[in-house]
Design goal:
- This protein is mostly beta strands.
- Among the domains are: 39-78, no CATH class; 259-298, no CATH class.
- It has helices spanning 2-22, 113-116, and strands at residues 39-40, 46-47, 50-51, 54-55, 69-72, 75-78, 100-101, 104-105, 120-121, 127-128, 141-142, 151-152, 161-162, 169-170, 177-178, 181-182, 185-186, 191-192, 201-202, 208-209, 216-217, 223-224, 227-228, 231-232, 237-238, 247-249, 252-254, 285-286, 289-290.
- The radius of gyration is 33 Å and the shape is elongated.
Length: 298
């Protein structure tokens, strides 16, 4: 009898010990009710929610603000030292809109490389410096590959690659120097030979001229598309080189489009350059220009 009582006592002690081991302080649960003024971190703890590294409110998951943001009222917002639309940039993190296109801070929308690039555009649409013999160009033109003894010297297409020792033009296929007065191989100053189009003919000076130019003509007389940042224009007029903080849209130099600014009615645009209909009071953006109110659109 005594032995059985001792055994029973031992069982009770074991059960009590197990209970003590399993019953500890309950793990806190972070919710919108328990963490109304802060945010919940990855460990389930409620943080104050006003620090850049743990920013949030209403019990939402904490987020880490970027280096150009601060935490205000539980939200990551751009700090005063971020760059506005149109200011030169290298990475998107520098810009208030977190968008860097063609070397300029944008509004989160995409513009063509030719309209924004101060260097040259690769086949994939990337903007590069354009100062290399294999990737040469300026003003948003398509990058060229210099041939033979050409050097990357020029500032407007097709005058990027030049061979100072050639009075005519350089044949891209073999680097040879041609006379430069043929309609199929026109050029001077050692540039890459051009085939004249748009009813142009090659003059004795090595310039394609005389025909219809829907774009613009550069200072040498060559017809450009008129959509390049370094050669912007239309109707055969003289090309313009857009200023530092401008882009070429609709063959005209504009300040970069910026959604929600530059107009009336709460910030929408009544006219001017655009990328998306949301920027325009009319809701219509056609060929990078805001349409008149009542035009409809997306």
């Amino acid at each position: 009898m005594k032995a059985s009582r001792l055994a029973g006592l031992a069982i009770c002690v074991a059960i009590a010990s197990a209970s003590l081991l399993t019953c500890g302080t309950p793990k806190p649960v972070c919710t919108s009710k328990s963490c109304l003024l802060g945010c919940c971190d990855a460990s389930g703890l409620c943080q104050v929610g006003s620090l850049p590294q743990v920013c949030g409110s209403n019990g939402a998951a904490c987020v880490a603000c970027t280096s150009t943001q601060i935490c205000q009222l539980g939200y990551c917002v751009n700090s005063s030292n971020c760059k506005a639309t149109g200011v030169s940039c290298v990475t998107a993190g520098e810009c208030c809109a977190n968008s860097c296109t063609g070397g300029f801070c944008g509004s989160g929308t995409t513009l063509p490389c030719s309209a924004t690039c101060s260097g040259c555009c690769t086949g994939s649409g990337a903007c590069v410096s354009g100062s290399d013999l294999a990737i040469c160009g300026k003003g948003g033109a398509q990058c060229q590959t210099c041939s033979g003894a050409q050097q990357c010297l020029g500032s407007t297409p097709p005058l990027f690659c030049k061979d100072p020792g050639c009075a005519g033009c350089i044949i891209a296929a073999d680097g040879g120097c041609a006379g430069g007065t043929s309609d199929s191989a026109c050029g001077k100053w050692g540039i890459t030979c051009q085939a004249c189009g748009n009813a142009d003919t090659c003059s004795s000076a090595g310039v394609c001229t005389g025909g219809n130019c829907a774009g613009c003509r550069d200072s040498s007389g060559f017809c450009q598309t008129g959509t390049l940042r370094g050669a912007c224009g239309n109707d055969g007029g003289l090309c313009s080189s857009c200023q530092t903080n401008q882009v070429c849209l609709n063959s005209q130099c504009h300040s970069p489009p910026d959604a929600g600014s530059g107009g009336n009615d709460g910030g929408c645009k009544t006219s001017g350059a655009c990328v998306a209909g949301v920027e325009c009071c009319s809701g219509t953006c056609t060929n990078y220009s805001c349409g008149a109110e009542g035009d409809g659109g997306p």
